[in-house]
Amino acid sequence: MAMLFWMVVLTCSCGVVISGNIEVPECEPPDYPQWGGYGPRQDVYLAGDVIHYYCDTDTYIGGNFYRRCEDTGDWIGHTPVCDPPSRFSFVNQTTTADPAGMNDAEKAADALRDSCTSTKEGPDNYWMGMLTTPGQLFRVMIFLPKVNVAYEVLMLKQNGQEISCGKKEGFVDNLNWEFHNCPEPNNTDVIGVKIRSLSAEPLKLCEVVAHTLTFPTCMDPHVRIENGRLQLNRKAAILNCDAGYTRSPSTRIECVRTGIWNRKNLYCMERQWETGNNDGISDTDP
């Protein structure tokens, strides 16, 4: 545990001067999630300092938003992860496009929020996306234009069931994401997402993002690395070393069973020579 020493000088009324050191615990910069980061960025944190984690656009944070440096020199809680969007292997929709080859359902899955698609008029028309890898669906995000909307989000299960993740009805007065959390325990073995219209008007969608868990999945392994830190996702923890240090032969640990990491000896060694490859953490890292 690192310590910062402060010199304190006290002068008594009797004229005697008393001096001494106060030990202030420090925390090293913390581990961080892949597809995300934290702030504020500092070289050293003192006990009581708080950091805030964030995730990139379209990703979903799993775990703590905040962590605090404790007087033990450790960060309280777990390093969160940022879950990236799941991929759709196939998308389709009911449409008036003629010929059928003009169906532009993929515009709702192209990662471009300024390109939108639309179903044909009438209730029960829908947009549908099939997941590349089935899993536990925990969230669906929909980016909508400024229109009146009425729809229901359905998760499509391997057994043929369609289970609701919620509805949205009303006028969307600003461009933003709508979030729909899918209920446990019925959100497992999900193979796709359907957005079903509840209105006579065409259903307009600009982007549909699904977040699923595929197993095995792990969280923070709590491995302390001197002169380095870990970049985490649910499947792996990757070693990054500070400037001037190089990585050990093993550079990552992996999630082998849910909640279980394989254990390898990860460490950072002081670099004794100059190379063209810089393993250090750059200014662009979170």
Automatic annotation (TrEMBL):
Gene3D superfamilies: Complement Module, domain 1. Coiled coil: none annotated. The keyword ATP-binding does not apply. CDD domains: CCP (cd00033). Keywords: Disulfide bond, Signal, Sushi. It comes from the Eukaryota. SMART domains: CCP. This is Sushi domain-containing protein. Residues 25-84, 216-270 form the Sushi domain. Disulfide bonds join 55-82, 241-268. SUPFAM superfamilies: Complement control module/SCR domain. Pfam families: Sushi. It comes from Larinioides sclopetarius. The keyword Signal applies. InterPro entries: Sushi/SCR/CCP_sf, Sushi_SCR_CCP_dom. Residues 1-19 form the signal peptide.
